[in-house]
Specification:
By secondary structure, the protein is an all-alpha fold. The chain contains 3 helices and no strands. The mean pLDDT is 79.
């Protein structure tokens, strides 16, 4: 004899599938937010570079401080260029070019 499903159960486990789908969508949504935070380094970069160069090179305006800031700027520019190149390569590979 057929019995009706118990409360919270459905035929073929639809409740479990729905819960898993909701969890996956929530994780993907939050992952997108975390990714956006990672790609906004300019806000923190200036204050971090300033603090680092004052600790390593001396007060603002000194030759060592200026050289430190220049080196940090060159390194950041190089890193940004490399990241952009990798991103473009990945996009071309996905598009089949």
């Amino acid at each position: 004899m057929l019995q009706a499903p118990a409360i919270g159960e459905t035929i073929m486990g639809r409740t479990t599938f729905t819960r898993q789908a909701v969890i996956v969508l929530a994780v993907l949504s939050l992952g997108g937010c975390a990714n956006l935070e990672r790609h906004n380094p300019n806000a923190l970069s200036h204050s971090d570079d300033d603090a680092y160069c004052q600790a390593q090179g001396g007060p603002q305006g000194s030759a060592a401080y200026t050289a430190c800031r220049k080196n940090r700027d060159v390194a950041a520019t190089r890193s940004d260029r490399m990241e952009r190149t990798h991103r473009d390569l990945a996009e071309r590979m996905l598009n089949g070019q």
